Amino acid sequence: EVKMRFPEVVTVVQNINNKKSNISKGEKEIIHFGDRFIEEQILDCRFRIYANSFFQTNSLQAENLYRTAFELLQPNQNDKLLDLYCGAGTIGLTASKMVADVIGLELEPTAVDAARENAKINDIGNATFYTGLAQELLNKNRDILNGVSLIITDPPRAGMHKKVLKALVEHNNKKLVYISCNPSTFARDARILINSGYSLGKVIPVDMFPHTMHIELVSIFER
Fold it and tell me: What pTM value is reported for the model?
């Protein structure tokens, strides 16, 4: 019935979550019809998005969000970019032509699969993605940070884990762009970064959700 009434709908996936959580991923997924994914264009890249892969819901404004992040970051072809909480790889892959290499870290396995698939779809060969908790990956595999000069982090509403912050402040990166959907956890993490030697530059609000109280913040930390 949905397909008949709304022919533009390409897939319907039901995600069942019986727990209280700050993430939307459920324990069970039911595909009612379609290929389980949709496709979106962001800047110069085409993205295949699955139900459990994080992706900005306002794709047009997401382009403004990413442009703002890149303008603050000022990447060049000698830089290696670490994309924390990378989801389906949207930030890292759209930045891939601006830098030498991209490293993406993401907890959700289906999102990492999507990121790798999206890299192939867009013929991007300089992006590598790892599955797991960022704090565990950075602690167990210190080589991930080797050569990293730029960082973009786009954490969930809970903000960054304290062990992630510790790993970042101990590493010799020069610029960190923090994209936040929660001003209170951003303020908490910003205090830690500033107390650890970073200076906070611009903080730019981006209205991703018009007519609601919610905003995204894009900020730049340097040292």
Answer: 0.85
